[in-house]
Request: fold
Amino acid sequence: MNYRHHFHAGNFADVFKHAALVRLVRSLQRKPAGLLLLDTHAGRGRYDLAAAAHGDSLARAPEWPDGIGRLWLRGDLPPELVEYAALVRDFDRQQGNAAGAPTARFYPGSPWLLRALARPHDRLALCELQADECVMLQGEFQFSPRTTVQKLDGYTAVRAMLPPPERRALVLMDPPFEAPDEFVRIATALDDGLRRLPGGTFVVWYPLTERARIEEFFARLRTLSLPPTLAVEMVVAPIAPKLKGCGLVILNPPWQFEREAEPLAQWLAGVLAQSPGGGAALRWLVPEK
Reply:
């Protein structure tokens, strides 16, 4: 795999994914029992947004100004986004950006957001298959309590780490979508995960592009013994030749999570729009009973 997320860190997809992740974790933490927070494709953990302006050899337009950059100085965030924005600002400041800086400099990946959200009795398991990314991730979390980092295929981790001793888990699957059979591998991993932990909450990020066959993916999921399953999508660039938007499919979402997810996605779709005609949509693949 050649994917390097730091070129995309803090973009609209990260904002949507991470804001929803914060609300999901907090919803699950309404119950006092501990949680395993498993990140199957964790990346390096932290991102210097200054590096986003450089490709492998050529300068490139950074993506974060149309993502976290659009939220940075806003004072009208809806309740669903307040904690996410506060966590990002705190991380940015702790990493060395001046308090009150007009732009973000450092952005937390999902591992650092999960670490910030975890209670003392929650546990983190972070997996990253790419060798150099995993080395960076291990350096980030070498002194972090109740956190393990492994150089491991994320789909293998679902089989290896479930069911956890806690008997509760949130599993985030955010693969690079480089492999042509990525959706097949995701569905297989979800099937494995549900067999091992039927009540676990599984969250899959996916791109909305001309090539991504989302309806085929959903049809494949419906062949599984699915629990309540929710899909939330956000489109910011409907005529873009590549990435038009993104979505999250959530198996076993917390009770009434859609009441937070829908206004969050709708607000972000408006603020992060790159061209007219976008928006947000929510649908149940398998409704709650």
Remarks:
- The mean pLDDT is 93.
- Residues 237 and 244 are 5 Å apart (CA to CA).
